[in-house]
Design goal:
By secondary structure, the protein is mainly α. 71% of the residues lie in helices and 1% in strands. Strand 1 (134-136) and strand 2 form a beta hairpin. Residues 1-13 have a biased composition (Polar residues).
Length: 443
């Protein structure tokens, strides 16, 4: 009788079949890997525009804005993590679906697709400009490859970008787990630090030799207007917008509750890097700083030392962008797959090799072809990105708190959510209106 009871109990407690939906992403990701991937997501192409924002804002307001955007980012990420833990979904779109149904889910997917697709195309375009040069206002700027090897088909934009896509990007975008990108992300951060070190050393040298200009502490309203100050906000919002990668990175952590700590560490790192780049870049070039500080380094190449530093800065930046590409591609691919196959009984993308490979190759080929065929399309995506990034980073997380489908938000959370939405909509609206009216052209 005891033997029968033992057998019966074992049949109840030990299922004969494995779980129906095993996790496609083993939860063995580390905090350091999460920090590397989050930080890399934030330190993308926008870092070269930060010194120019210091020219508009001044040093002290610039630091205040960087810290303020970082704090708001921390708040909205905390909103997302809390509602993800209280709900049943493990994706951003799924979390929005729990609060706003299919419309909310679709809105997230469209915003992520527009933003990330535009960002990846922009990365390709910038890589092409750095390696193969470009033409602006009738002036031809040679790329690194053209300076070294002359102008021929080997140094053409189409061939150089194809080489980068096949031999640097393709092996990385074929990785099926986001945590597998932690090493390339660490190298990407290191390359950003190389730029900071070079820029700071040159700025200190110029300061000691009396060649640097005294940076403005506050805005100079004889050169800029109050509205012009708002045009700098999208630069920082775009820089801190890693929300689309919160769920993929969180899903692979050994302990998902460590995601909040990883996010805060990453934000501290990025605040330090952003301010260092902005301060030393502005200190080095002063009012001659360009919207893309790489142009300033190009102008500084009349000496052998200048040419060497110029080559190091541009090459490190190009490789940095190539290594940021896979982490942005990861969330783009996941959202496109979720959009196409959300209503179909399909296995997880990472475990479906034909679907994974075909979607990955299609996205890489599409971004490459668009960047080569329409190298000025990035202006269009910049406008769309300034609205969609604000939505995914600030508006959607705050809206989830106000909706409060799980009944977990407190009064202070709802007040903070309202403040976030008002700030996001107000600053973005003013920035877009100012840019469209061209008031910042004379900066």
């Amino acid at each position: 009788m005891k033997l029968e009871e033992s057998v019966s109990n074992s049949n109840i407690t030990a299922p004969l079949l494995p779980p129906e939906d095993p996790s496609p992403s083993p939860q063995n990701g580390s905090i350091s890997g999460a920090v590397f991937n989050i930080t890399t997501t934030m330190i993308g192409a926008g870092i070269m525009s930060i010194p120019a924002t210091m020219k508009v804002l001044g040093i002290v307001p610039g630091l205040v804005v960087i810290v303020l955007v970082a704090l708001i980012t921390d708040v909205t990420v905390e909103f997302m993590l809390r509602y993800t833990s209280s709900g049943k979904s493990s994706t951003y779109a799924g979390m929005m679906a729990e609060s706003f149904g299919s419309i909310g889910s679709l809105a997230v997917k469209i915003c992520v697709i527009i933003t990330n697709l535009g960002v990846l195309i922009i990365y390709f375009i910038i890589l092409g400009d750095v390696l193969c040069g470009n033409e602006s206002n009738g002036i031809t700027h040679l790329g690194i490859l053209q300076e070294w090897f002359g102008i021929n088909w080997l140094t053409s934009r189409a061939f150089a970008l194809l080489f980068v896509a096949l031999f640097i990007m393709l092996p990385l975008v074929m990785l099926r787990r986001v945590d597998s990108l932690r090493y390339s992300s660490a190298i990407s951060i290191l390359l950003a630090l190389v730029f900071v070190v070079i820029c700071s050393s040159m700025a200190v040298s110029a300061l000691l030799s009396g060649k640097s200009q005294t940076p403005r502490i506050v805005p100079d309203f004889s050169q800029v207007t109050v509205l012009d100050l708002f045009t700098t906000i999208p630069v920082f919002v775009t820089g801190f917008g890693f929300h689309v990668n919160v769920h993929p990175i969180r899903a692979e952590l050994i302990k998902v509750e460590h995601m909040g700590l990883a996010a805060r560490i990453s934000l501290i790192i990025c605040v330090a890097i952003y301010f260092a780049i902005g301060f030393f870049g502005y200190l080095l070039f002063g009012d001659s700083i360009m919207p893309d500080v790489l142009v300033n380094f190009d102008q500084n190449s009349h000496t052998s030392t200048g040419r060497l530093l110029n080559a190091i800065v541009r090459l490190s930046y190009a490789l940095h962008l190539a290594l940021v590409f896979p982490i942005m591609n990861y969330s783009l691919r996941a959202n496109i797959d979720e959009l196409i196959f959300s209503n179909k009984n399909k296995p997880p993308l990472a475990s479906d090799t034909p679907r994974f490979v075909s979607l990955t190759l299609t996205l890489l080929a599409l971004t490459y072809l668009v960047a080569v065929a329409i190298p000025n399309i990035w202006y269009f995506f910049q406008f769309l990105g300034s609205t969609t990034i604000v939505s995914t980073s600030f508006i959607f997380p705050a809206a989830i708190v106000l909706r409060d489908m799980h009944g977990i938000s407190k009064t202070k959370d709802q007040v903070m959510a309202i403040v976030v939405i008002v700030l996001a909509v107000g600053t973005s609206g003013i920035a877009i209106w100012t840019n469209l009216n061209g008031s910042g052209d004379d900066q």
